[in-house]
Amino acid sequence: MSVGVVYQQAFGSSKAGGEKRLFEIHRGRSSVVWYVQSPCGYEYLDSIKIEALSVRGMSCRSVYGVLCWCLLMLRIPFDRHEYLHVGLMPFFHIPFLLVRKYARRVLGKKSPVIVVDFWEFWGATWFRKNKIYGFLGFIVEKFIIRFSDKLVVISESGLSSLSCVRHKVFFIPNGVNSQCVPLRKTSDREFDFAYIGRLEKHKRVDLVVQVFQYLAEIEPTLRFLIAGTGSDSNRIDEQIAKAQRCDITRLGKITSDEDVMALFGDAKAFLFFGTQEGGSSIACLEAYASGCLVFHVEAKNGVERNFLFEPDTFFVPEGRADMLARYVYEVMGDITDRSAEVREFVSEKAWPVISDSYYRSVFYD
Fold it and tell me: Are 43 and 12 in contact (CB under 8 A)?
């Protein structure tokens, strides 16, 4: 069986959650080809062959880059694969694949089964954007849901949102590399609070820094960590530079899973206020695997309670930074070393388990 992965960037050139998920699902599998937009400097990623559909380098986030990616869907060799595993973003490329698939079927030509990893359902939220763009997005989303062969969601809310096509929807959550680092005692950890991950606007790292500042006013000896890069890096760096009397360590690009786990292992608590997570979060699982507590806000499109390990997770009420800081500080004052139950929780969400779920139920169904 041959599978083609369709996503603009391969894991390695980008460390975002989508690339990470697709890589871990197909890692170690034979006959997998990952189609990317532009050359990324390597031909293989583990056992996965990387093929660029264009010889030109271009920004994946630009309008021009997205338009080019849509047209490049015409270059994917449909007769080479039994399945195409398609990442949801940048979204508008998927109708090009679906229209091409049905056109080939009408002509009696071989077409692969198209499986879309449907990480987020927007629905009426589209109309909060520009009216024309919102209407287009709303229609395209309906089209993808209607004509995709199979859809994979990462949360129970996603499953509920697609109940109208429940017969072709599979619920497979995010996973984690479960080789846990040795759990260190809470008192031995270098940082009291940390944010480790991408610096993107929807992650609300600016709110994390504000909470750090108020925590430092409560207890000046607290130590903080911000680690990662992203489109919001410059703004966050400027904010950190202005944070007086606040001991914040700033680290840039994180190059490996081992580095991520080591950083989480150096922190007592992970502050994660993202509100565009589709109900799931790889970072939260990585925090658990390193014995790090998680503080998260309850939001409509944040991380769902049933995805998280409740004994090691604290849901903070949405509100001002000073209120969040007081709540977090009070909770941390009652914390002792964490339960070993988290290891069992994490092992059930190991990436090999998630990968087997795909290859048993989605690709072999």
Answer: no
Asked if residue 180 has pLDDT above 60, the reply is no
Residue 22, CB half-sphere, CA atoms under 13 Å: how many?
34
Residues of the chain above pLDDT 70, percent: 94
The three-state (H, E, C) secondary structure of 66-127, written as one string: HHHHHHHHHHCCHHHCCEEEEECCCCCCHHHHHHHHHHHHHCCCCCCEEEEECCCCCHHHHH
Look up residue 324 and give its two tokens.
């969040």
Residues ≥6 apart with Cβ < 8 Å to 61? 231
Strands 150-153 vs 113-117: parallel, antiparallel or unpaired: parallel
Please state, as a whole number, how many other Cβ atoms lie within 10 Å of the Cβ of residue 7: 27
Task: Using the CB atoms, write b or e for 41-80: b if 16+ within 10 Å.
Answer: eeeebeebebbbbbeeeeebeeeebbebbbebbeebebee
d(CA 90, CA 7): 9
CB distance 136 to 95 below 8 Å: no
Q: Cα separation of 313 and 303, whole Å?
A: 11
Paired tokens of 309: 């390990």
The pLDDT value given to residue 179: 67
Q: Are 269 and 192 in contact (CB under 8 A)?
A: yes
What band does 336 get if pLDDT is binned at 50, 70 and 90? low
CA distance 179 to 213: 34
Single-letter amino acid code for the residue at 69: W
CB 69 within 8 A of CB 37: yes
Quickly tell me which residue has 């998630």 as its tokens. Answer: 354
Q: Residue 11's CB: how many other CB atoms inside 10 A?
A: 23
Q: What is the DSSP string of 123-152?
A: GGGGGGS-HHHHHHHHHHHHHHHHH-SEEE
Could you tell me the sign of the dihedral formed by the alpha carbons of 16, 17, 21, 22, in that order?
negative
- Measure the CA–CA gap between 224 and 222, rounded to whole angstroms: 7
